[in-house]
Amino acid sequence: MREIPQWTNDMAIRQWGAMPRTVLEQTEHGGDFAKRHLINPVLLRMLGDLNGQRVLDAGCGNGYLSRMLAERHAQVVGVEPGQSLYEFAVERETAAPLGIRYVQADLCALPDLGAPFDAVVASMVLPAIPDWTGAMRACVDALKPGGLFVFTVNHPCFEQLWPSWREHGEYRTRRYLAEYEIPGPSGVDFHRTIATYLNQLVSLGCQIAEIAEPGLAPETAADGPDGIDAYVHLPNFLVVAARRGS
Ligand SMILES: C[S@@+](CC[C@H](N)C(=O)[O-])C[C@H]1O[C@@H](n2cnc3c(N)ncnc32)[C@H](O)[C@@H]1O
After folding, report:
1. Predicted pLDDT at 38
2. Beta 180-183 vs 188-191: how paired, if at all?
3. How far apart are CA 216 and CA 191, in angstroms?
4. In the chain, pLDDT over 90 holds for what percent of residues?
5. Distance 168 CA to ligand 1 centre (A)
6. Could you tell me what percentage of the chain is helix, strand and coil, using 3-state DSSP and rounding each to the nearest 5?
7. Distance between CA atoms of 209 and 14, rounded to whole angstroms?
């Protein structure tokens, strides 16, 4: 396992940017099962009325969330550095235009994106970035004073929820306090504690507005994939909404 300091943003981006087209297509409409039932409803509620709002989808992947936001009449800019993801998002915009502007860039080296944003969303992105503090700062800097920053991460207490539940019928972990690498099928994530994320947000002058740990409704779990009942009992995601200081 590679030590964290050896990772650069470019190394992580190259892994994410090789995501196969089949995976991108599987999640192009609303994301995967967990995003459709746990993340999207909370994000949309936290963002509120999007009509005419200028929204940055930071680390937008295949653009599924950008499209959902644009369909709700937001003016969306999607930033994505990974090659296959960026190309897929642009291709979908070309085929069925929603007015989304996609920019291929690392959040830590953003070009000028124009006027400040009413809201910035970074869904499942900060854990994928070695220099996550630089990325979080860029998200906050992109906001208007008082603008809303919403981010989601795999819940740092339950990152292996599904596999652990299937193997043991409960959640087991041995490590929480260290920062470590979590290799995944499409790219690498990094474990950081809840306090690490929240204290960084506070140090950037943000005021936390809400924290959500969404659980799955039992009737929804009944229609889901094997082992998904874990999500009824424990939160797979942490969702944080904060306002930039004025
Ligand atoms: C788990 S995916 C989430 C994608 C999308 N937000 C979603 O919810 O489907 C992580 C994303 O972070 C992107 N990413 C990795 N490093 C980044 C960086 N330095 N700046 C911006 N995005 C980055 C990856 O390319 C990938 O699209």
Report:
1. 97
2. antiparallel
3. 23
4. 91
5. 30
6. 40, 20, 40
7. 34
Query: Domains in the chain, ordered, with CATH?
Result: 4-243 (3.40.50.150)
Contact 221, 228 (CB under 8 A): yes
Q: What Cα–Cα distance (Å) separates residue 40 from each residue in 36, 45, 111, 184, 214?
A: 6, 8, 28, 22, 10
Atom of ligand 1 nearest to the CA of 31: 9
What CA–CA distance (Å, rounded) separates 14 from 82? 7
161-167 LR contacts (CB < 8 Å, sep 24+):
161/230, 161/231, 161/234, 161/236, 162/227, 162/228, 162/230, 162/231, 162/236, 164/230, 165/227, 165/229, 165/230, 165/234, 166/226, 166/227, 166/230
- Whether residue 31 has pLDDT greater than 60: yes
- Is 122 near ligand 1, meaning CB less than 6 Å away? no
Residue nearest atom 18 of ligand 1, based on CA coordinates: 106
What is the predicted pLDDT for the residue at 224? Answer: 80
Model confidence over 67-89: pLDDT tens digits? 999 999 999 999 999 999 999 99
| Summary mean pLDDT of the chain | 95
Confidence at 240, pLDDT banded by 50, 70, 90? very high
Q: Which of 7, 10, 14, 16 to mutate to test the pocket of ligand 1 (most atoms within 8 A of CB)?
A: 16
**Is the distance from the beta carbon of residue 189 to the nearest atom of ligand 1 less than 6 Å?**
no
What residue has token string 């999007």?
50
pLDDT tens digits for range 221-235: 988 877 889 999 999
Q: Ligand 1, atom 9: nearest CA belongs to which residue?
A: 61
> What average pLDDT does the segment 123-140 reach?
98
Structure tokens at 90: 């642009």
